[in-house]
Each structure stands twice: as C-alpha cells, then as structure tokens.
C-alpha cells in the first residue's frame, strides 16, 4: 500500500528542482533558436572544424540539414497532404513470465494493418500473429538457468515485427503509387556502439535488410515517434560556442560542463514548438564526427506538427534522396494523423489488434491447466494475492 502523503512530499521537492531546470531551459531556448534561425555556411564550417576525425573519439552528436539548406534550418514547411496511398502498419505486444503459476508462459501478439486510400473509397485489412512460449523456451540463451528478462522478450517481439514488415515488402510488387510502412518507434538503433562511425543515424541489421528490399519495391519504411525526447538539435550551438579548437569534454571544468548541459537539456520539440499543424521541419541527419558519405540505409528525420503534438518521423536515406518522394510520404503520414486525431490511424488499429487483454490471459491459463502434472494452479504466494486474504 502506497504512503501517498510521503510520496506527495517527495514529488513536491522534485518538482521544485524540475521547475528550476525548466526556467534555465526557457532562458536559453530563444538564444539557441535565434542562432539556428540565422545559420550560414561559415558557422557550419566553424562547427565542422571542431568535430573529431574518423579516428578520434565521438564526443557530441549534432544535426545538419540533409539538403544543405542551412539558411532554412528552423523553417517550417507545409505538408503536401496525400489522400491516395497505401499504408502498412505493424505493432506488437507481449506478456511477462509469471513463475508463480503451474505452467509459466509468455505470449507475443503481432498485428498488421493494411489500408488503401484513393479519392473515392478505402480498403481495410488486418491480420494478427499470436505466439506462445512454454517450457525450455522460457529460458535465456545467455544464462541457461535464468528465465528470459523483459528486455529479451521485447527484443523477440521486435524481431517478429520486423519479420512481418519484411514479408509485406517482399510480397509487394513495384508500383508508382505512394506506399508506406509505418513502424511505432525509432528506426535508429541507439543501442549500437557509440563510437561507431554511423552512430545516431544507423539502423540495425534486420532493418537494413528490409530497407534494401523496400528500396527495390518503391516502399518507404518510416518510424513514427510520439512525444520524442531527443535533444540533439541544440548541440550545434554548444559546439559553435565551445572555446576549444577541438571538442574534448574531458578537459572541461565542472562549471563549464554545467553551462553546456543547460543547452543539452533543450529537447528538439521545444525548438520546433512554433510549427503550425500540418507543417514539418527541415530534413536532418545526425553525426558525431567527420565522415565521407551516407549509406542508403542510414536514417534522416523530420519533426511534424500533427495537430496534437510535435512528432518525430524517421525516414531512410534511400527515400530522402528523392525529395519529392519524401515530401509525399510526410504528406501521407500527416493525413494518417488527421484521420487519427493526431496519431496515425493505422498504428492505432495495429495497437488495438495487438493488445493482449486480461481476459485473453485468463483464457490461456485455463487451457494450460490441463498441461503438465502440477496439481496446484499457482503458488501459495499468488494464491494469497488472488484471494486477497489481508
């Protein structure tokens, strides 16, 4: 039972600290916004002169416009709303392993939604793919005696989602019409080695394989991130104002780091909060040091005012290379948000179809009662929780 009075006191104390940080952020936002609004080639060259070479350690990630239109860094662009396109959305859910029942298990449920829009009508289809794991399938490959962790199960779910996307793309015929795959979450793999040359714009190997096939089939695979927490856009200002000839954060004093961190805490969405509904930001890419060229499977991103929030859209370079194609994709995603009250309607459907309810779990556990030799359905601990004896 929660001591709400105690928690309320803790929240009050922490809220005061958060308000102080928010005040610091507000004091710096306009300064950063003004700098980025009047960005030019000379300022960018100064920044690039300070970043590490390929053989040096990556210190700070920052962003540049993909189309090199530095003078339009903070400009908002109107969406070219599309109403004729095909969208495929995938989402998944999973349960955790409850070791206090006689037959432990976990479930994955992957939902795929396909909607075709044209000027007269639309076509809607969906399919779900449930998976159940029992017995030896519950144990981690890392440690033979340990059951799988939540992160391992989530990774399995993500792999199944990727498999569904790959199947859709492989079965697609090349068409000139706009076709989107919408994925709920990042395409960029932030778990990779930070010192990798393409860290901050690289997908994992599974997605790179999908992108290579999708490029041939003229299918745009895009990631949609609701309420993004990224804080990279403002780093250009941090680097520009760094007094050192080359970035080396280890040499900075504690006070210098604190002043730098005040800028680092400015989330990207704060800087794009002036975007009107139906506008999107410039197209950006992320880097941390000098580089030669992009891979087609690298990721660019834009911020989109959906009418409810500022969302982040991640789009592979093979799409961004064709600016007209990219703008049509953004316009189709915005249309998805229009009909979905600020969030893509196809992803909303996929989420609903993938949800595993309490009733679903109860039905599965009733079926599993007949599996195995255990007499008791669950442990004494769980029995007391179910009966609420206290």
UniProtKB/TrEMBL annotation:
Keywords: Coiled coil. SMART domains: NurA (SM00933). Pfam families: NurA. It comes from the Bacteria. Residues 4-31 form a coiled coil. Residues 85-356 form the NurA domain. This is NurA domain-containing protein. The lineage of its organism: Bacteria, Bacillati, Bacillota, Bacillota incertae sedis, Caldicellulosiruptorales.
